[in-house]
Design brief:
83 residues; alpha+beta; three-stranded antiparallel sheet; 22% helix
């Protein structure tokens, strides 16, 4: 995306930026209320000196991917042995 925003990691849609929510926060969020299963949000605290760029940087941060592991295996590595 030309503005430096990565697509939503859950549905692939283009995120929206709200530079000031009126509550002292800048927000980047997935606007797809119907098809996005998670609707993630990344905020920046404007009152604490953070900027919209901080919210965008948080939005663009992606955690490690564990393609062969389920959440159960990550949280409880011996779950299969408990059965």
């Amino acid at each position: 995306m030309s503005d430096g925003l990565m697509p939503c990691p859950f549905c692939g849609k283009r995120p929206k930026v709200c530079p000031d929510t009126g509550y002292g926060a800048a927000t980047v969020f997935c606007p797809d209320e119907n098809d996005c299963p998670v609707q993630p949000v990344a905020d920046a605290d404007l009152k604490a000196g953070e900027t919209v760029a901080d919210a965008i940087a948080r939005w663009n941060t992606r955690g490690p991917v564990h393609p062969t592991s389920s959440l159960t295996e990550i949280n409880r590595p011996n779950a299969r042995e408990e059965v």
